[in-house]
Amino acid sequence: MKPSLVHYWCCLVLLLLASVPARTQVTLSAHVELGSRRSVHQSGNVVLWLSPVGGRADFPPSALQTPRLVQRNKSFDPHVLVVPVGAVVEFPNRDPFFHNVFSLFEGKRFDLGLYEAGSTRDVRFDKAGISYIFCNIHAEMSAVVIALDTPYYGISNPRGEVIIPQVPAGRYTLHVWYEAALPDNLKGLTREINVSENSSTLGVIRLPQAQLQQAHKNKYGRDYDQPVPADSPGYQRP
After folding, report:
1. Whether the Cβ atoms of residue 173 and residue 56 lie closer than 8 Å to each other
2. For the domain with range 24-57+150-211, which CATH number is right: 3.40.50.150, 2.60.40.1180, 2.40.50.140, 2.60.40.10?
3. pLDDT tens digits, residue range 133-143?
4. pTM score above 0.70
5. CATH for 58-149?
């Protein structure tokens, strides 16, 4: 019996696909240093990411799991969290007391209100950007959520080492973020790079000496040790 026309075309498509070479993927490394050449130290929580030039990249299914920013021991864990745009981040309260998580600045603006131990609330980060997260009760609590539209990123470890795995060959814009760096300094590190099978490192990323971070206000725009006026409208939910 002769093979059907459908069977013929299926075989042809499979042969054509098999003849297309797989796109080269590269694991990139980098090393982050803070300070000048004479006084250098490493730092964790520096984020590097690559945006395809003239195109877009999708996150793999494994990256679409629900991320969490856990409140534990009056701190957020992890301190820096990178998520894909559109991700829903859970904020579970694992402390034996109330928390009030909010973000009023860049990125996503939200106020989760007061919620008790053992409960969880969540936020969808629906646009690319950097969100600075605080607790309205505990001034020492802070975290950062970075929503990206590219899966090619890495976060430096305490030794300043960064790994960005499985980057397809091509042209990208390199972006750098560090919590204690000035925006203009970070902007100056943005540059276009070309990734090929012969490239495996982004070299040394040197950031100027970290700036002292200023104390933040509560969600009413007041110092944490100041009483909140009874008629204060507070933060208006978007």
Report:
1. no
2. 2.60.40.10
3. 999 999 999 99
4. yes
5. 2.60.40.420
